Amino acid sequence: MTITTITTKGQMTLPKDIRDRLGLKPGDLIEVTLEGQRILLIPKTLHLDDITSILPKPARVVSIEEMNEAILEATAAHAL
Question: What is the pTM of this model?
């Protein structure tokens, strides 16, 4: 168990080992709720790894060159 202090502004520092275990970074969002006399902190920021794990696998692998070519074709089509 780790103990932290609440400042006069109502702020606290989440211990580094907890931040590291949850992969929390500066700017991440945390939901704060009460359950009886307990304070629950629930991470709400999705990281790239979280998002990619829920996306379907692509039908085929596309190279960077193919992506660049498709981008050029699409922008050329909109420029006309």
Answer: 0.53
Of the candidates 65, 29, 61, 31, which has an alpha carbon nearest to the alpha carbon of residue 47? Answer: 29
CA distance 80 to 3: 63
HEC secondary structure over the chain = CCCCCCCCCCCCCCCHHHHHHHCCCCCCCEEEEEECCEEEEEECCCCHHHHHHHCCCCCCCCCHHHHHHHHHHHHHHHHC
Buried b (16+ CB within 10 A) or exposed e, 10-43: eeeeeeeeeeeeeebeeeeeeeeeeeeeeeeeee
CA–CA dist 11, 28 (Å, integer): 15
At 80, is the pLDDT very low, low, confident or very high (cuts 50, 70, 90)?
low
Q: Is the Cβ–Cβ distance between 62 and 77 less than 8 Å?
A: no
